Amino acid sequence: MSEKAREMICISCPLGCHMTVTPLGGEDVxxxxxxCPRGVVYGREEVLSPKRVVTATAALSGGVVGRVPVKTDxxxxxxxxxxxxxxxYAMKIEAPVEQGLYLIExxxxxxxxxxxxxxxxxxxxx
Amino acid sequence: MKQEKYDAAVIGGGSxxxxxxxSLARRGKTVVVFEREEVLGGILLQCIHNGFGxxxxxxxxxxxxxxxRCETELKTLPIKIYLNTTVxxxxxxxxxKLLYGYSGKHGLIRAEVRAVVLAxxxxxxxxxxxxxxxxxxxxxxxxxLAQRLVNVEGYIPGEKVVIVGSxxxxxIMARRMSWVGAKVMGVVEIxxxxxxxxxxxxxCLNDFSIPLYLSHIVSEIHGKDRVEAVTxxxxxxxxxxxxxxxxxxxxxxxxxxxxxxDNEVAKKIGVELNPETGGALVDSRLMTGVSGVFACGNALHxxxxxxxxxxxxxxxGEYAADYxxxxxxxxxxxxxxxxxxxxxxxxxxxxxxxxxxxxRSLVVKNRAELQVLLDGRVVKTKKLKHVQPSEMIGxxxxxxxxxxxxxxxxxxxxxxxxxxxx
Lengths: 126, 422
Hints:
By secondary structure, chain A is an alpha+beta fold.
């Protein structure tokens, strides 16, 4: 029994392809309107198990700015986002910090990790 | 006062300025970059979300990552960088131009150069620009300022937020505020269609069930010391229907109502601006009306993807290097916006060279056609799957695609025709 086709916009990149995604039952999905293979991956996931890349910041002490930006290195199941953010907001990072530092590795066995996205030097001592 | 001499000066150390400086330095020119903030990177540093770099770096990056890549590349080259330094004055009457930079750290710097690249980026339109009635309480911010407060400084501006305007920064902030625990009560857009990219409507509003009020305005801001509520009013045929007004309690109003190129310095030099873009009028080599002064990035026109800023600004650096080498290309003819097009950049073209155009549609259409008209005659067409004002359109004319005009004015017009309404 196949479900109804869903109109959606691929959010894998800023091009934003308008796609039609038709679940064909089970793991089978038909994706149309995509301009690259990432559209197929996104369309399938959006129907079967929606995921999002999370970008946020962590508290930073001793740096030239007060927050260090972070991202998940892949898309995380939408339902896990609130708990990930809760863990992130409890963290306190010390400057200096390098871009690409792993703050949480393999979050709840999803294979998705949380990494810093900016190099921030320590503030000069007054 | 420090007195220094370079081939070229770049004003602004964001994505545009860094790309232009890299091109110039690669061509062996001596370059100085003036950046008023403490670090290079510009507005990218507060754009912590991803979606940058897919065209230029062929991978998806966050703003800070994109900025760091540009900076890493720049630092492989001998480029002089002045941070914490604001260019207050440029004297550009002669072939040799004088720039005056002021800095708490370096004092007054005078740089003598032969070429100047304007890469100052853009500014946000604010409450005064849209004339929202009501009291003047605390809690009204431009979306980009709020973005900086949350993402860089670490302050959360409020708990219950109404966003005015559906520009991309506003949409991104709707998600960001939701993820820091605030409640976004709604996004209010005066136009019947969203101003931001569709992907941001999907990802930033729909994911959080945030209502989008199209053809609505905030007709009043309430509150004495702090924002307490706003009145939202629907438009009927473009006129506010006050009887249908409703009140939404909130403590914060974020304004995402458009960006305008930052051209205070350009105006002082006497650069003629394009009223449609707010940026300089430029020829096909991105040179303004003032010889030796170039413009690129959001200071030229507001882009929606930083990748296009990098592309355009790299070329701008090349053109500035050509100028320094004394090569300025062939004759220039006028180019501009035709039917259904808001603006075209650049405003002149060189039929003997490759010409890169960026333009914005005035209409939302599917299966549209882009038409290039030479003195009113269609000389090239291109199919466009979907056009909307918020998505910039880029295209190139290769040398030889146009005969060098010998008769007539040689005016090139770019229009959008056909298509179906969405």
